[in-house]
Design brief:
Blueprint (H helix, E strand, L loop, with lengths): L5 E8 L2 E9 L6 H7 L2 H28 L5 E2 L6 H12 L8 E2 L2 H30 L5 E3 L4 E5 L2 E10 L5 E15 L5 E8 L5 E5 L2 E7 L11 H5 L4 E10 L4 E10 L4 E2 L1 E3 L3 E3 L5 E3 L7 E3 L8
Parallel strand pairs: 6-14
Antiparallel strand pairs: 1-2, 3-4, 5-7, 6-7, 7-11, 8-9, 8-10, 8-12, 12-13, 15-18, 16-17
Helix pairs in contact: 2-3, 2-4
């Protein structure tokens, strides 16, 4: 049986480093995914490399024709790889300055193939670039730490986030999950997912800030947890957000991961808002990450 080539991928979920081993090689069968997920520098570097390789290939075909006594490109210097390369660039880009042009049947055949490849490449590259540029994304600022504090007489897990664009996101919805490792009665280890109930999981018009609140009552998977439980837990807390961005008229999504060790117990967020004498309200987003211990003489962190 032939051995299949495999790969290893390293990625992170919050602070957790995960290494996936022996994944099937799927680069050529999943080019769209790689085009969408690569960074912009890598994306353009790959385009440049492909462009150079294609033109080098066609230049070598012209050189091959010339080596057998053919004159594939008129006005090209004999044996000049540079002339053939730049003629290929002009052909693939459908520029055609006119100084160099196909001269023989062989030259016309190679130029025809190059033109077809060039037109197809332009369509593919333009589509991939537009898809990357037009991909809708929410611009959310999440507080650095979740906190646990009392609210309306109940103990709450709170996570604050803000809309960086300060525009209207309608029909906004949020989910809060906790993911933790547990053992079954058969001593098997399983990664289990629990959706945490929120006091409010939707927002008709999200434009500024939103604080998610999960009551730590008897129904909560975190009921009875204290500071030490969070400090020694390997659980992850995940926020999933979605909504309709009125500026782009598109559905936007975002996601944030926290480690349970990042939860600040018996802390509360510092208020972002203040008012002046004229009644104007100011929101200081620089305070988004600031918290303070609960107590009369507590100072912000």
């Amino acid at each position: 049986m032939a051995a299949h080539r495999t790969r290893t991928k390293v990625f992170r979920l919050g602070e957790r480093k995960i290494i996936a081993e022996r994944l099937p090689q799927s680069f050529w069968t999943d080019l769209h995914h790689y085009a969408m997920t690569a960074s912009w520098p890598r994306f353009f570097a790959a385009l440049a490399a492909g462009f150079i390789c294609l033109n080098t290939l066609f230049a070598l075909l012209y050189v091959l024709g010339a080596a057998f006594g053919d004159e594939p490109v008129a006005n090209a210097r004999p044996g000049s790889f540079a002339d053939y390369f730049f003629f290929s660039v002009e052909t693939l880009a459908t520029v055609g300055y006119g100084d160099l042009h196909p001269h023989s049947l062989y030259g016309h055949l190679v130029a025809t193939i190059a033109t077809f490849v060039g037109v197809s490449s332009v369509a593919i590259v333009a589509g991939a670039t537009f898809a990357r540029f037009a991909r809708p994304r929410a611009r959310l600022l999440f507080a650095q730490n979740p906190v646990i504090a009392p609210h309306d007489g109940a103990r709450m897990l709170m996570i604050r986030f803000a809309n960086e664009r300060v525009n209207a996101i309608t029909e906004a919805a949020a989910q809060l999950w906790i993911i933790r490792q547990e053992r079954t009665a058969e001593s098997a280890s399983f990664r289990k997912f629990y959706r945490l109930r929120l006091t409010r999981d939707d927002n008709p018009v999200f434009a500024l800030t939103w604080t998610l609140m999960h009551p730590l009552d008897e129904e909560s998977p975190l009921h009875g947890w204290e500071k030490e439980d969070f400090a020694h837990s390997d659980a992850d807390i995940v926020v999933i957000f979605s909504g309709h961005d009125e500026s782009s008229n598109q559905l936007v999504r975002d996601r944030q991961h926290y480690s349970a060790r990042e939860v600040l117990v018996d802390h509360q967020y510092v208020d972002l808002s203040r008012s002046d004498a004229q009644g104007a309200t100011f929101l200081d987003f620089g305070q988004l990450n600031k918290t303070r211990p609960i107590g009369p003489n507590a100072s912000p962190l």
